[in-house]
Amino acid sequence: MMKRKLAAGNWKMNGTTPSLAELQALVSVHKTPSVDILICPPATLIAQAAGISADSTIMIGAQDCHAAASGAHTGDISAPMLADAGAGAVILGHSERRENHNETSDLVAKKALAAHAASLIALVCLGETLAQREGAQTLDVIADQLAGSLPDGTTGANTVIAYEPIWAIGTGLTPSLEQIGEVHAFIRSRLDDRFGAGAAQDFRLLYGGSVKPENAAEIFATSNVDGALVGGASLKADDFSPIINALES
Ligand SMILES: O=C[C@H](O)COP(=O)(O)O
Asked: What is the CATH number of the domain that holds 128?
C-alpha cells in the first residue's frame, strides 16, 4: 500500500465560524500537497469546514464519536453522523478524553469499530504520563493502550496511530528524538505482532505534543515518524503551513 505522510491538526475546543478563515487559507496555499492534510475542528464547524475543503485535498475530521450508531445518548455524536456532516476521520482516545471523560482503551476500541463501520479513519492516540515516563513504564503503557484500543479489523488504511506523551501536550516540552524513535519503533513492531509480519509498514505513525514550525523538521526526520498530530500550532494557518511544508520536504 502506498503510504502518504499525514499532517493532522486538532483544534480541540477552539474555534467559531470566523476561525474557518484559517482553513480557507490552508486550502488556498496547499493546492496539490504531497502529503495528506487533516483538520479536526470542533463538531459545530465540521459541516462548514467540509464545504470549504470540498474542492481541495484537505480532509476534515472529528475529535470523538460515540460507540453506537444512534440511540438515546443525549449530547453525543455518532460516527455515521460525522460522516454525514462531511468528516472523513475521527480522533479517538485522545489523552484529554481518556482523562476528562474516563475513557478506557476498551471504549476506544469500540469507538474505532464504529468509526470503521462508518468508513471513517480512526486516529487513535496513545501516550504516557510524566510519572510513567520517569518510572520507566512508557513502553508497557503504550503496549497496553495499543493492544486495548485497536479492534479486530484494524488496518493501516482505516487507522492512524498517534503517539502523544501527555507531558508534552501544550507544554512546549518534547521528548528527545531518540525517545520518539524508540516508541514509534516499538509501536511498529507491536503492530506486526498483532496484524501479521509486514502489516505495520502500512500504518501512519504520528507524533504529537508541542510540534511547532521550529521543531517539525527534526521530528519528521526521525525514523518511523510518518507525520504529526498538532494542537496549538494547528489553529493558525501561518503556524500549521510551515509544519506541512516540513513534512513535504
Ligand atoms: O492533539 C494534539 C495534541 O494534543 C498536541 O497538542 P499541542 O500541539 O498543543 O501540544
From this structure: 3.20.20.70
**DSSP string across 119-141:** TPEEEEEE---HHHHHTT-HHHH
Is the distance from CB of 228 to CB of 207 less than 8 angstroms? yes
The C-alpha cell 463501520 sits at 117
- Protein residue with its CA nearest to atom 8 in ligand 1: 231
Is residue 1 assigned to a domain? Answer: no
ipTM of the complex: 0.99
Whether residue 21 is contained in a domain is answered as yes
In a domain, 98, yes or no: yes
Grid coordinates given for 34: 504531497
**Given pLDDT bands bounded at 50, 70 and 90, which one contains residue 2?**
low
User: Is the beta carbon of 10 within 6 A of some atom in ligand 1?
Assistant: yes
> Which strand (E) or helix (H) includes residue 7?
strand 6-10
Closest among 233, 126, 108, 236 to 186, alpha carbons compared? 126
- Which burial class, exposed, middle or buried, applies to 24 when counting CB atoms under 10 A from its CB (0-12, 13-18, 19+)? middle
Distance between CA atoms of residues 179 and 233, nearest Å? 22
How many domains does the chain contain in total?
1
Angle (CA) 50-229-159 rounded to 5° is 75
The stretch 74-99 carries a mean pLDDT of: 98
pLDDT of residue 1: 52
C-beta 209 within 6 A of ligand 1 = yes
Residue ranges making up the domain that contains 165: 6-248
Strand 89-92 relative to strand 59-62, pairing = parallel
| CA-nearest residue, atom 2 of ligand 1 | 231
Q: Which helix (H) or strand (E) holds 28?
A: helix 20-29
Q: What is the pLDDT of residue 185?
A: 98
